[in-house]
Structures are given as structure tokens and as C-alpha cells.
């Protein structure tokens, strides 16, 4: 990473040309986003969408890097999340733009290609892979979270070029996997050596900048029972009933952590920032048999500044102590960590990158940039904590991400793209292309 001098402010003419270029190519941007949404890039199935993005970046003349993540390369890092699936199709894609001569500041434009499961498809208004545009919104799984942002990164760059300018610093366009489950994709990109003077991640954040977000742990809890025929139910031990006892114990630590919110900077105003979600549960073998086993999956949030190891120690102790509940039959639950093992982060105020984003947002939106704290996970923690890079999570309005009829607001997306385009020009600096200069 090479720190250089701050480029001069954009002129009114440069700003106007870039903003007009975003408008001129916005229909193409939407069509590209729709094409991207049509790829069902669920976990373990991301490779075809990555192939599509690889070709889109290569066509722009970027130097291309596409690699399959090797767990052995990253598993010793403190930011690594345990892996329980095959990484056979877990490919990252990075396209690098390099100017003939660097003058400005380098930039990473990051986004994730993986999407969460759709749930029952018949509960969607239309197919989740049919990116319809209706009343100013684009629908589809991943349309908001975050394929619209990935496309915005590319089309913001295109707008700068179409306006007649070349960025004067390296730009790394990253499409990573595993954001929805471990964060290992962004971690693998960092450990591959990608560094820059700033990072933008256009997650769907309601036209605002994320000031802080929680860390996340994923774990599976398994409890054992003793099977009997239901006619002798009193002689058995019901593992599903025991699971309820374990869940209640976890609710206790969730309440304890939420009661401490006033002790954590940027979380003071949130009544319930720590959410423990019981996302999946299964158990038993037969309706007429007292169930001998039950297991459930948990997503637990933690405050920035609390390490994953510290949180794990408290969770493990909580479940060990729960054995005092007679519903657990004297056997402590077994806990296995299965994904996210991530610390939260705080974006400290006053960086040049944030100040530049504020200026560009004001020019695009004609309003001041607001910031907020989110109780969700973001890959920014990789760049902030382990890369020491100012990382701006900032993106368009959305509805129902991770739910049915997920959608992104198109006018918001247009203005976000304008902000990113102006940020590229202002942060990296620009020079006139040869065609314009001649």
C-alpha cells in the first residue's frame, strides 16, 4: 500500500460529467444486476456467478485473479471461521485496475457474491431468481444483499471512464464468497496481499454509513436423551425438552449482554443490540419414541472489543452451568462452533476516507450523510481489525433482505452509484483519457 498526496478537488465540470455518465449507463447497470441475480449463488454454488463477474472484469481490461480458497491458508488466523462444508466451488475473484503512473490513493471496492437460502419458494410473490423491476424496486434473492452493490462498484468505475477520465491510483474490485456464514472470503483476499488506502463495501445500508457493528458466532448445540416407547415415557428422557432448557440458558446470557449495552460505545441507544437467533432445530427419530437426541443452530452477536474466544468462553460456561436444570438430565450439552467466529468493529470518525465520502454523498444526494450502528455482521471487520484500513460500508435502501421478496430501491441505487463514482475520482484522483486529452 502506497500512501500518496491528496488529489485536488474535482471541478464542477468534472463532477457534472461523472454524474451524467452514471445516469447515461444506469439502464445497462440494472440489466447487468438482473443478470447477476439470475445466478443462484447459494453457499457451495457461487462459482458460476463468479465466472460471470470474472468475464465482466476481464472485459474492462483489469488484471485478473481468481482462486479457490484453501482452508489451510487461513485457518490459523484469528479472524477465521470454522468450516463445515466443501470449498470445492469457493472461488474469490479480484480484478485490478492500475494506472500508467500512480498519483492518487488506492482503493478496494469489495462485495460478496454469496446469498442466503430462499426459504419456501411458494412464499415468494415470484421466483427468487426472477429479478423483476416493479414500482421502482428490483426483486430477487441477492438483489439487495448485495449484487446491486457489486454492480454499482463496476458501473461507478465505468462512469468515471465514460466521462473521459482515468483513475490515477490502483483499484481492486473484489467479489468474495462466505460473507453470509464465515467471512473467510474477505479474510482470504486480505491474506492474499490486497491492501489499499481505503475500502468501500456497498452493502444495503439505507443510504447511510455504518459506524459500528457486532461480531457474530455460529455454533451448534446437541443434547442427548434416553429413548423409550411413549407408553413408558416417564422412564425415558426427552432430548427435545432438554433442548428447550439449553435455549433458555442462552436467553439468559443474551439478556445479560443486552443489559450492558450502555457500556459499549455506539450501542448505548440500542435496547437490544445482542440477538441470539435459534436458526435451525431438529431431533428425534420416530413420533412414538421418546427422542434420544436434539440439536439446534445458533447465531449469537457480540460487542466490538469482545474477542470471539472471550465470548465463546462465556457461552460454553453458560451451557455447562445449565446442567443444573433437571430437564437436561445431568448431562451438559455438546457445543460445536460451525461458522462465524468474528469480532465486531467500530469505524473511528474523522478519517480522510470518511470525509471524502461525506462530500461525495452530499453532491449526489443533496443531503448530509448519516451514520448508524447495526446489529448485523459485515466483512468490514476483516479490513478494519486485521488490515488497519478505513472501511466504509455504505449502500442503497432495501426491503426484506434474508426474507421473502427481497428488493433494492432503484433511485437509491442510482445515487449510491453516483457517490461511489465521485469517490473514485476524488480519492484516487483522475487524469483525462488520451482520447479526451488529444
Automatic annotation (TrEMBL):
Keywords: Cobalt, Hydrolase, Metal-binding, Zinc
Domain Peptidase M20 dimerisation: 212-322
Molecular functions per Gene Ontology: hydrolase activity; metal ion binding
Keyword field contains Hydrolase: yes
Cofactor annotation: Zn(2+); Co(2+)
Pfam family, one: Peptidase_M20
Keyword Lipid metabolism: no
EC number: 3.5.1.-
Protein name: N-formyl-4-amino-5-aminomethyl-2-methylpyrimidine deformylase
Annotated InterPro entries: ArgE/DapE, Bact_exopeptidase_dim_dom, Peptidase_M20, Peptidase_M20_dimer, Peptidase_M20A, YodQ-like
PANTHER family documented for this protein: ACETYLORNITHINE DEACETYLASE, PEPTIDASE M20 DIMERISATION DOMAIN-CONTAINING PROTEIN
UniProt family annotation: Belongs to the peptidase M20A family.
Amino acid at each position: 500500500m502506497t500512501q500518496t498526496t491528496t488529489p485536488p478537488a474535482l471541478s464542477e465540470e468534472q463532477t457534472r460529467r461523472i454524474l451524467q455518465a452514471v445516469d447515461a449507463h444506469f439502464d445497462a447497470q440494472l440489466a447487468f444486476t438482473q443478470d447477476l441475480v439470475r445466478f443462484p449463488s447459494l453457499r457451495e454454488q457461487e462459482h458460476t456467478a463468479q465466472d460471470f463477474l470474472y468475464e465482466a472484469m476481464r472485459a474492462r481490461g483489469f488484471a485478473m485473479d481468481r482462486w479457490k480458497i484453501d482452508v489451510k491458508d487461513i485457518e490459523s488466523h484469528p479472524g477465521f471461521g470454522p468450516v463445515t462444508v466443501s470449498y470445492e466451488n469457493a472461488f474469490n475473484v479480484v480484478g485490478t485496475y492500475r494506472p500508467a503512473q500512480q498519483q492518487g490513493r488506492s482503493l478496494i471496492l469489495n462485495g460478496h457474491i454469496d446469498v442466503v437460502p430462499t426459504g419456501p419458494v411458494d412464499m415468494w410473490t415470484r421466483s427468487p431468481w426472477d429479478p423483476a423491476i416493479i414500482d421502482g424496486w428490483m426483486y430477487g434473492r441477492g438483489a439487495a444483499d448485495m449484487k446491486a452493490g457489486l454492480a454499482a462498484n463496476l458501473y461507478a468505475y465505468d462512469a468515471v471512464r465514460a466521462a473521459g477520465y482515468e483513475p490515477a491510483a490502483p483499484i481492486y474490485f473484489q467479489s468474495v464468497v462466505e460473507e453470509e456464514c464465515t467471512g473467510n472470503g474477505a479474510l482470504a483476499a486480505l491474506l492474499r496481499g490486497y491492501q489499499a488506502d481505503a475500502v468501500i463495501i456497498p452493502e444495503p445500508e439505507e443510504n447511510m454509513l455504518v459506524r459500528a457493528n457486532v461480531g457474530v458466532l455460529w455454533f451448534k448445540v446437541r443434547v442427548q436423551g434416553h429413548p423409550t416407547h411413549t407408553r413408558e415415557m416417564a422412564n425415558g428422557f426427552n432430548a427435545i425438552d432438554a433442548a428447550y432448557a439449553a435455549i433458555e440458558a442462552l436467553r439468559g446470557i443474551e439478556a445479560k449482554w443486552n443489559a450492558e449495552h450502555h457500556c459499549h460505545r455506539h450501542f448505548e441507544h440500542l435496547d437490544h443490540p445482542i440477538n441470539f437467533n435459534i436458526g435451525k432445530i431438529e431431533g428425534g427419530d420416530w413420533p412414538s419414541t421418546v427422542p434420544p437426541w436434539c440439536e439446534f443452530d445458533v447465531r449469537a452477536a457480540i460487542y466490538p472489543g469482545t474477542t470471539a474466544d472471550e465470548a465463546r468462553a462465556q457461552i460454553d460456561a453458560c451451557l455447562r452451568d445449565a446442567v443444573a436444570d433437571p430437564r437436561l438430565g445431568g448431562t451438559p450439552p455438546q457445543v460445536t462452533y460451525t461458522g462465524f467466529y468474528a469480532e465486531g468493529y467500530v469505524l473511528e470518525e474523522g478519517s480522510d476516507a470518511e470525509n471524502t465520502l461525506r462530500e461525495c454523498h452530499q453532491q449526489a444526494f443533496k443531503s448530509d450523510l448519516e451514520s448508524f450502528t447495526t446489529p448485523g455482521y459485515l466483512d468490514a471487520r476483516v479490513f478494519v481489525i486485521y488490515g488497519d484500513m478505513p472501511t466504509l460500508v455504505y449502500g442503497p435502501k432495501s426491503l426484506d433482505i434474508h426474507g421473502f421478496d427481497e428488493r433494492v430501491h432503484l433511485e437509491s441505487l442510482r445515487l449510491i452509484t453516483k457517490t461511489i463514482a465521485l469517490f473514485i475520482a476524488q480519492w484516487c484522483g483522475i487524469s483525462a483519457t488520451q482520447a479526451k486529452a488529444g
